[in-house]
Structures are given as structure tokens and as C-alpha cells.
Amino acid sequence: MNKYEVLGVVGEGAYGVVLRCRNKESGEIVAIKKFKESEDDEIVRKTTLREVKILRMLQHENIVELREAFRRKGKLYLVFEYVEKNLLEILEQQPAGLPPELVRKYIYQLCRAINWCHEHNVVHRDIKPENLLINPDHSLKLCDFGFARTVTSKNRGELTDYVATRWYRAPELLLGDTAYGKAVDMWAIGCIMGELTDGQPLFPGESEIDQLYVIQKVMGPLTHEQTDMFLRNPRFLGLKFPDMSRPETLEKRYVGKLTKKALSFMKGLLSMDPYKRLNAPDALQNR
């Protein structure tokens, strides 16, 4: 850490702390993620090394750049390019949502980042406003690959279901499906698009069951397969949903706020059935 001067704390999480630092030689400002656990914690070590491996593989202009990784006194430090703001902060400054042109710009860049991840068989699994960094020139960088996993046809069915901040979680994740795939990221992009449009989270559920209810209230009922999954999941034992056959719909929710084309794009991202959801290459074609 000797070549860096600490300027302040950017954020803290369960893993440790992110520091804003200056490289004493070059004067460049960087963000350094310092993990608090020492070598002893095997799970943290595995997660961190996986994150480093994934970031090294995924170099792209819309993904935050990992400059270096080093170890000091048993602690791991990751050095990233520094980006001043994240999308959550931008939404807090503009509570009524962003201009359509900016929504389009951010969503296009997010689709590019996710397409690159998916081309390399990486599912991010935690797309949310805090993990989208924004430069003054409106360039977007996806960050925080702590939850990301490599998905192959071999390991499908072995992924954990508890990931992603609840509001951005796809129905299949909420239902405990472990055979989910890249479509969970596309759902999250749809949620972000809604939030950027009017400044309000699209599906602000207060628990897992409430999250499923809030989604159906706008999007309509679960698919047959999802209903079976719901009934089989011990977490939801004895619970059921009211009649969901007359949902609010995205059309009503965003009337006058989205063009016909933007609305149809959003509906493609938010298909209840993951197999019918827009994939990343299609989303890029659709812009």
C-alpha cells in the first residue's frame, strides 16, 4: 500500500472497505477494495480470487477496470480505476427519473457490459444501481463481481438461489430455482430501466413473497412451471396469491413516459418466462 495515499472511504460492505486513493508516483486517483478477512477465511478467499479471475477475463470499456491485485499482511487489495458516482447517487439527485435519451444511453451500455459477460459465460447476478458507476461523460461501468459466477451447461442446476438485491431479482431466483442462467441478468436490466424512467423502483418488495406479489401485480401471474415451483418450495408453505389475472401492466405504469419501442424492449426484458426473455445479443440489436 506504500505507493498509495488514502484520501477517504468510498463505501463499506460485509467484505471490507473501498478507499479512494492517490498513486504517489503518477498522481492518478484509484479505488482500492480492501478485504477485511485474513487468509484464514477460506470462503472469503475463494470468493475474492474468483472475482479477480473473472475481472481479469472481462476487460471491456463498460466494465470497471482492475488495475492490480496485491496482498499485504495476509489481506488482499484490489486496485480499480476510480469512477466518481454510481447510479443510485444519480437517482437520488433526480428523483423524478432521467431524460429518455440518458436512460437509453445507460441501458445500452449496461447491455453491452452484460453481453460481454454472457459471451464469456459469466452471470453477474447482482445488477443494481449501486453497482453501475457513471463518469461525468455519461460512460457507464459495471462493477462488483463478488457474486458473479461462470455458468456452463455442466454446472447449471448447481447455483445458489440467494443472490441479488431483492428488488432486482428475477421470479425464478425468488422461487428457489437453482437451474437459472443468464436470463436473471436481463430481468435486472429491465428493472433498472423502469427505475431510471420515473425514479421509482419498479418492484419494491418487502420480503421474498411480497416481491413475487409485487411483480405479478404489474406483470401478471406466474407461469405454470413457476406456480409448481412455488407450491413445492417449503419456504412458501401454506401461502397463496390472490387472483393476478388483471395486472396493472407496464403500459399503464409508464404511460406517456416511454415510446412504443422502448416499452416493447422493456417487456422483452421482463418476460416472466426466462426462456422467452430477451437475451443480451438481441437486446443490443433492439436498441
TrEMBL record:
<keyword id="KW-0547">Nucleotide-binding</keyword>
<keyword id="KW-0723">Serine/threonine-protein kinase</keyword>
<comment type="similarity">
    <text>Belongs to the protein kinase superfamily. CMGC Ser/Thr protein kinase family. CDC2/CDKX subfamily.</text>
</comment>
<protein>
    <recommendedName>
        <fullName>Protein kinase domain-containing protein</fullName>
    </recommendedName>
</protein>
<dbReference type="InterPro" id="IPR008271">
    <property type="entry name" value="Ser/Thr_kinase_AS"/>
</dbReference>
<dbReference type="GO" id="GO:0005634">
    <property type="term" value="C:nucleus"/>
</dbReference>
<keyword id="KW-0067">ATP-binding</keyword>
<keyword id="KW-0808">Transferase</keyword>
<feature type="binding site">
    <location>
        <position position="34"/>
    </location>
    <ligand>
        <name>ATP</name>
    </ligand>
</feature>
<feature type="domain" description="Protein kinase">
    <location>
        <begin position="4"/>
        <end position="287"/>
    </location>
</feature>
<dbReference type="Pfam" id="PF00069">
    <property type="entry name" value="Pkinase"/>
</dbReference>
<dbReference type="GO" id="GO:0004674">
    <property type="term" value="F:protein serine/threonine kinase activity"/>
</dbReference>
<keyword id="KW-0418">Kinase</keyword>
<dbReference type="InterPro" id="IPR017441">
    <property type="entry name" value="Protein_kinase_ATP_BS"/>
</dbReference>
<dbReference type="InterPro" id="IPR000719">
    <property type="entry name" value="Prot_kinase_dom"/>
</dbReference>
<dbReference type="InterPro" id="IPR050108">
    <property type="entry name" value="CDK"/>
</dbReference>
<dbReference type="InterPro" id="IPR011009">
    <property type="entry name" value="Kinase-like_dom_sf"/>
</dbReference>
<dbReference type="GO" id="GO:0005524">
    <property type="term" value="F:ATP binding"/>
</dbReference>
